[in-house]
TrEMBL record:
Region of interest (Amidoligase domain), residue spans: 1-268
Biological processes annotated in GO: 'de novo' CTP biosynthetic process; pyrimidine nucleobase biosynthetic process
MF terms (GO), sorted A to Z: ATP binding; CTP synthase activity; glutaminase activity; identical protein binding; metal ion binding
Associated pathway: Pyrimidine metabolism; CTP biosynthesis via de novo pathway; CTP from UDP: step 2/2
Pfam families: CTP_synth_N (PF06418), GATase (PF00117)
Alphabetized SUPFAM superfamilies for the sequence: Class I glutamine amidotransferase-like, P-loop containing nucleoside triphosphate hydrolases
UniProt xrefs under InterPro entries: Class_I_gatase-like, CTP_synthase, CTP_synthase_N, GATASE, GATase1_CTP_Synthase, P-loop_NTPase
Protein name: CTP synthase
Activity regulation info: Allosterically activated by GTP, when glutamine is the substrate; GTP has no effect on the reaction when ammonia is the substrate. The allosteric effector GTP functions by stabilizing the protein conformation that binds the tetrahedral intermediate(s) formed during glutamine hydrolysis. Inhibited by the product CTP, via allosteric rather than competitive inhibition.
Keywords, alphabetical: ATP-binding, Glutamine amidotransferase, Ligase, Magnesium, Metal-binding, Nucleotide-binding, Pyrimidine biosynthesis
Positions annotated to bind Mg(2+): 73, 143
Length: 543
């Protein structure tokens, strides 16, 4: 195709409008036309990465295969496009400034005064073009975090202005805004959109395409009005109406010819409209699954916030679709769980997922939930800290070490069944110092994990500092908890399971990161399948 084309996605009026979903949808539609596409996220905060951010601040921290802690939108990019992102796909203001300051300290600028323009903006531009230059993508879609008008977004907008000027038809701006409905007046209002576009124009950027987020259908006249007042072609004003699922959005965008408009504006041939067969087949299966009786899965954790477990929720939902069943993920706050209320809290739950996390808060409740699920043979899936809790609970209640613990929770525990890795002991920095990214794992043939994957060698992503203590391995195995996944290089335990239970597995890694729309994760699919079978068995027994 020649030169890489750059699409910038900005947002206005309010945050959380779904820039990540629109970026992913545009990427999906262009990918379906045979183009090589990637998406990157530029975040205006000064943290180097989201790794040290509380999930209440910024939702979950996503991990790329090369071990970068990234924004949760990268999860959407991977789930929609089936691609693997890397460190280069997520840049923060912190990283931009750190890079510029490091260069200044080394003397790379030859004594020049370092300024936002040109030094910061040049560094942003270099990062925008990095993926295109290195991997020769046809399209690089760049999502700019935050909202137009935020003071921290200004260097990014200036960089986009310069790139649009330099690249001509090879750069395009898609601006996502909100059209609110005023119930008292019974009207949809376009003024916030007009103001948002004015704000963008004052930064020197004329949007090429407007995507209007709305809860109500927008009339042709309203779209014409927006086009006229915002200097945008009528066919380049697209509505993004609330949909039953985010996976409908590419179909809705294609119906309004968003991909065609982009190709025409960038001087590329339009060609035939892709059928999106596998995507539509997934949606059809999902719609049918939505009509079934919901299968309730308890997500036991301490962050009462949807975005804190975004990838897990999506992986469970996808696994539900591929088992032709609607999954209802019911959050169970581990801080509130006790021996007295656990039976009530897990009443009607077909399966229990023990969520990941850091720190001691909410741990006691996780132990209560794990013990209940284990002793009542409810299908159970522990992820990362969830797996570590499974190991600790087993040590306390089966091996008889009442004081067993993780060094993370209790430095002085005499039975440190979960311990810190040797190479981690001298590290005091919090950010990016864990076992991060994809690592090999070899599965034991005949195990439930092997059965799910159907292969012996797997590779999964990690984000943790503490590990299963191999000194206790023989005791665990003798008592019925098997270590069925092992890292071949370090001999570290990656998976534990209790074979005599219906489905009881803990993984040290995060399988949710690699579950996509067209390739659901085998462990989640197996977990949901086991939960359905177990629940139906129990219902039959009641009758």
């Amino acid at each position: 195709m020649g030169e890489t084309k750059y699409i910038f996605v900005t947002g206005g009026v309010a945050s959380s409008l779904g820039k990540g979903i629109i970026s992913s949808s545009i990427g999906k539609l262009l990918q379906a036309r045979g183009y090589k596409v990637t998406i990157q996220k530029f975040d205006p905060y000064i943290n180097i990465d989201p790794g040290t951010l509380n999930p209440y601040e910024h939702g979950e921290c996503y991990v790329t295969v090369d071990g970068h802690e990234a924004d949760l939108d990268l999860g959407h990019y991977e789930r929609f496009l089936g691609i693997q992102t890397t460190k280069a796909n997520n840049i923060t203001t912190g990283r931009i400034y750190k890079s510029v300051i490091d260069k200044e300290r080394r003397g790379d600028y030859l004594g020049k005064t370092i300024q936002v323009i040109p030094h910061i903006t040049d560094e942003i531009k270099r990062n925008v073009k990095l993926l295109g230059n290195k991997y020769k993508f046809d399209f690089v879609i760049t999502e700019i975090g935050g909202t137009v008008g935020d003071i921290e977004s200004l260097p990014y907008l200036e960089s986009i202005r310069q790139l649009k000027w330099e690249l001509g038809r090879d750069a395009l701006c898609v601006h996502l805004t909100y059209v609110p409905y005023l119930a008292a007046a019974g009207e949809l209002k376009t003024k916030p959109t007009q103001h948002s576009v004015k704000e963008l124009q004052s930064a020197g950027i004329q949007p090429d395409v407007l995507v209007l987020r709305t809860e109500y259908e927008l009339s042709t006249n309203l779209r014409k009005k927006v086009a006229l007042f915002c200097n945008v072609d009528e066919n380049a004003v697209v509505q993004s109406i609330d949909a039953p699922t985010i996976y409908e959005v590419p179909i809705l965008m294609q119906a309004q010819k968003l991909d065609e408009t982009i190709l025409k504006k960038m001087g590329l041939p339009v060609g035939d409209t892709p059928g999106l067969g596998p995507w539509r087949a997934f949606l059809e299966r999902r719609h049918k699954a939505e009509d079934t009786e919901p299968l309730h899965i308890a997500l036991v954790g301490k962050y009462d916030l949807q975005d804190a477990y975004k990838s897990i929720r999506e992986a469970l939902s996808q696994a539900g679709t591929y088992n032709d069943r609607k999954v209802s993920v019911d959050f169970v706050n581990s801080e509130k769980l006790t021996e007295e209320n656990i039976a009530e809290a897990l009443e009607g739950m077909a399966g229990v997922l023990i969520g990941p996390g850091f720190g001691e808060r909410g741990i006691a409740g996780k132990f209560v939930a794990i013990k209940y699920a284990r002793t009542h043979d409810i299908p159970t899936f522990g992820i990362c800290l969830g797996m570590q809790c499974i190991a600790i609970e087993f040590a306390r209640n089966v091996l008889g070490y009442a004081d067993a613990d993780s060094r993370e929770m209790n430095e002085k525990t005499p039975h440190n069944v979960i311990d810190i890795m040797e190479e981690q002991k001298s590290i005091t920095n919090m950010g990016g110092t864990m076992r991060l990214g994809a690592y090999e794992c070899i599965l034991h043939k005949g195990s439930k994990a092997y059965e799910a994957y159907g292969t012996e060698h797997i590779q999964e992503r990690h984000r943790h500092r503490y590990e299963f203590n191999n000194q206790y391995k023989a005791e665990y195995e003798a008592a019925g908890m098997k270590c069925t996944g092992i890292n071949p290089e370090s001999d570290l335990v990656e998976i534990v399971e209790i074979p005599k239970l219906k489905w009881y597995i803990g993984t040290q890694f995060h399988p949710e990161y690699s579950s996509t729309v067209l390739k659901p994760h085998p462990l989640f699919v197996a977990f949901i399948k086991a939960s359905i079978e177990s629940f139906e068995e129990k219902e039959k027994a009641k009758k």
